[in-house]
Amino acid sequence: MENKFLHHFTKALIEFMIISGILVCAFVPFLVFKAAAYYPFINSIALQIIAVLIVSGITSLYILWEIRRIFKTIVNTNPFTIENVSVLRRIALASFVIAVTYIAKCIFWFTLATAIIIIIFAIAGLFCLVLADVFKQAVLYKEENDLTV
């Protein structure tokens, strides 16, 4: 019963994050220009901020979409498939894209939060690559076991 609740909660949370992420990405230009009314220094870098937020937002939506694909295999079938290995590698690449995007942001506006985002997404990318290798090894063991039986 508890796992069923957790499953539905996680699924709903992923769906909510995708929908809200699409809405936030759509309103980024409006929100940045609205913030510029209160913080005039933003006017000089508004387009760069919009570009960074749009790129990282779309990439984050892509990561959520891929997580959703993995989640479906965990619930419905065996999660140790070669497709999940590919999904984890794509998530790692997307994480590195976000890290590089924020490295580029440091050229025109450095903040401590930017440095933290770079570190978090670089570590997330490395974690996904390691997890992809673990999943690949599990797939090989499973295939070997299936052939033995």
Question: What do these coordinates show?
Answer:
By secondary structure, the protein is mostly helical. The chain has one domain. Helix content is 89%, strand content 0%. It has 4 helices and no strands. Helix 2 runs antiparallel to helix 3 (82-108) and helix 3 runs antiparallel to helix 4 (112-148). The longest helix has 37 residues, at 2-38.
Shape: elongated
Cα-to-Cα separation, first versus last residue: 33 Å
- Compressed to H and E, one letter per element, the order equals HHHH
Helix content: over 70%
Task: Note poorly predicted spans.
Answer: none
Task: Give the SSE map.
Layout: H1 2-38, H2 46-76, H3 82-108, H4 112-148
Helix pairs in contact: 1-2, 2-3, 3-4
Short structural description:
This protein is mainly α and 149 residues long. Helices cover 89% and strands 0% of the residues. It has one domain.
Characteristic terms for this protein:
mainly alpha; elongated; 149 residues; 4 helices
